[in-house]
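Blinded run. Sample ID left blank on purpose so nobody reads anything into the name before looking at the predicted structure. Input follows.
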Amino acid sequence: MKYQTNSLLILALFFIIQGTYAQESPADIIRKAMADELRRSMDSLKYKDFEKPFFIAYKLADISTLNISATLGALLNSEKNQYKDQSVRVMVGDYQINDENFINYSSFGQSYFINAIPTPKDADYFGIRRSLWASTDNVYKSAGEIYKSKLATLEQHKIPKEDYKIPDFAKAPTVELEIPTPEFELEKDKWEHVAREVSAVFKDYSEISTSEVNIGLFKATAYFINSEGTKVSCPVTLAAIQISGSVMVVSGSPVNDNVVYYSLTPDNLPLVKEMKKDVAELAENLIALQNAEPYEDSYSGPVLFEGEAAAELFSHTLFGHNGLTASREEMSGRSDMISIPDKPSGNSIEAKIGKKIISKDLTVKAVPGLKEYNGIKLIGSVEVDGEGVIPPDELILIESGILQTLLNGRTPSIMVRESNGHNRFTIHGRGLSRRVGPSVIEITSTKSMPKESLKQKLIELAEEEDLEYAFIIRKAETGSFYQPVNIYKVNVKDGNEELVRSVTITSLAMKSLKKAECVSDSIIVFNTMISGGYRGMSMYGESVISGIPSSFIVPDAVLIKELEIQGAGQVYTNKLPVLENPVGK
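Blinded prediction complete.
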């Protein structure tokens, strides 16, 4: 009888708890589950002879996605998903020395960060807590082992803690912030219709060998909490459409081109009629490139970048391959040697702080809170970063060509010891990670002229070098490299332009901006994804949304005094299809 009474009490208690959570909103349930499990872990987490954690942070993202691809009016893929993505950070030690920033050779290759228990799609209190509990256990055991190994390495090499001069983790103000996520629906039927209608325009162009329209919608609320008392919820949303095409050529690689639109919500994407017009222009451009002569020479001289090619130039040179971001060189220790970095290596970007790295006419600053410019919504705008740090209203990175500081999160580097709120949420695959990267970047110059005058200036510089022609680039692709799409040879004598293809810029880097002769006095706004991979044709079923949403406010033309351009080099003959493309026949 007593057993039966206890069972009834437990059952009644269970239903009372379930009823309580049922009355709460999903957001409240998520916040409560995270806070309760964080409190329990900080109070009770202890294993073997490992120290208790001094810092724990949880991130949980409630995500909905829609990915659609179509070709020639027919769907290739249509997938709508909803899921939760979580990550756990546990530190053992203290702010000065902890388990991070250390290469632990004894456990090299092991992974402790696999979430053993998936996070439920629903806002289920116990399901979320159990998932966080499993991840916390894994990460804590790893952190404890690494921290012991780190201290042992310092002791083995008789290095006092005082010689460990750069803190492993920066302190930051406590933040409590709730930013509402914009309301919009992921309307599968609507966007399937758009994909079909826009992709069908390619039916009119038999010359186009492959074509595709990819639509990606990403809607997430990111919840972040840490043991310091920071509690943040903020939206991470993005809508993107990529229209891609390619043509085969007799000699050289196939020619690709694309148009990409980015906005924070689907409402700000272009109208279908505008996209159909862009498809026609894209197809005509590909046909023109197909008929263009491949460039087979080499060139060193002035190059003018116009429109999006100018914006791509700035984004690629300043933020490609990390660029103006701080990085921490990890301490490494083995039985025979140890390395504790205390000054930047000579070839690192940090060693150049206080030195001129680009033209003295250029200034580069981050304005992360700016939401709109000239009526254009900025996808890089951010109020709080992925570590719960609020960035400053303005951060000057380069002033009059001289490097002042770098973007950073809470992991101190040698020269940038505190966070400036740029450990950004990064969209990848089925979730959100964090990476230091740009927000809204504005580039200004003290030396400018009307855009239409820059071509004449280009010709004058080429004449000074006794060159027969110069180059104008009006469209390009960036990723791990900078690849011109629309590049024109400009005859120095008469100014006539000739479209050429199969061209590569061999040495484009940040230092190329040292030779920025002049920029236009007009501005372009360029929304893009940084480190999201090659902005060319997406693979089948792959989301077009990947990377850090970023915005660039830059001059819409820039003249570089000297660059090296290389032709196709090895020209080969393709085996073109035996029969003509059936499309349009």
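Unblinding after everyone has recorded impressions. Confidence is low (pLDDT under 50) at residues 108-113, 532-541.
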